[in-house]
Amino acid sequence: MTGRHVLLTRPDGENEALARRLANSSVMVSIRPLIRLSAEPLSAAIKQTAIDLDLIDLIVFVSKSAVIHGMPVLDSYWPQWPQKLGWFAVGEGTAELLREHGVRAVYPEKAGSEGLLGLPGLQDIEGKRVLIVRGSGGRELLASELKRRGARVDYWEIYRRDPVSYEGWDELVTEDMIAVATSTEICLHLASELSGLAARIHLVVASARIAEAAGDPGFKSISIAAGASEQALYDAVMQQAQIIGQGPEST
Fold first, then answer.
1. What residues does each domain of the chain span?
2. What is this structure's pTM?
3. What is the dihedral of CA 87, 90, 96, 100, to 10 degrees?
4. Best exposed site among 24, 107, 203, 219 by fewest CB in 10 Å?
5. Contacts of 185 (CB under 8 A, 6+ apart)
6. What local confidence, expressed as pLDDT, does residue 245 receive?
7. CB of 22 within 8 A of CB of 29?
8. Can you tell me the distance from the alpha carbon of 124 to that of 146, in angstroms, rounded to the nearest whole number?
9. In terms of CATH architecture, what is 5-34+166-250?
């Protein structure tokens, strides 16, 4: 069973599909969400942003959680969407959630800020008003580059992230365990939770950016998936499990 125990760490509700798929491949799966997502209180500023949606030219959702927490608020103010508004999603999964609200959003083939910035609709944006829907904090690359292109950019921070801690890591972590981390925040929090136990873990991350930002947190190895989709993470985990199973003589 070397390399066949996988730890999934995404927030509640985001691990189950991958867990089922791995279990069907005879992989033992443990789930410990390391980040808790919760809606921000509906402040006057959040409500006013929703009311002023018709003043916005382009709206960008940078996560599924942005859709989950943001769209019900917008729905309550807008029975019909402003006609001039352009909708963008960070990836296919986020776009699929927007479709449930009657929105067809443009999204990049490879999810992420870099992919968004390559979309034709975000090139000639001089003087346009852009609203980025996200959780509190996060990367500044998207906003910085859109501003450089001449856009007026505002954030609508509709939810927050809080780290979650657990006891009993000694009992959970097995030798040559594979853990999946889909954000820098999760990666660093996992390293903090594990402390010296990280040396047993083969980490699979969703991008080279996460691997670079994590630095050297003491994991046994770090491999990079082709993205954060279920398919990309599944492929990376199974490839890593195969490498572990082959042992050092195969390298």
1. 5-34+166-250, 38-161
2. 0.86
3. -40
4. 24
5. 35, 161, 163
6. 78
7. yes
8. 10
9. 3-Layer(aba) Sandwich (3.40)
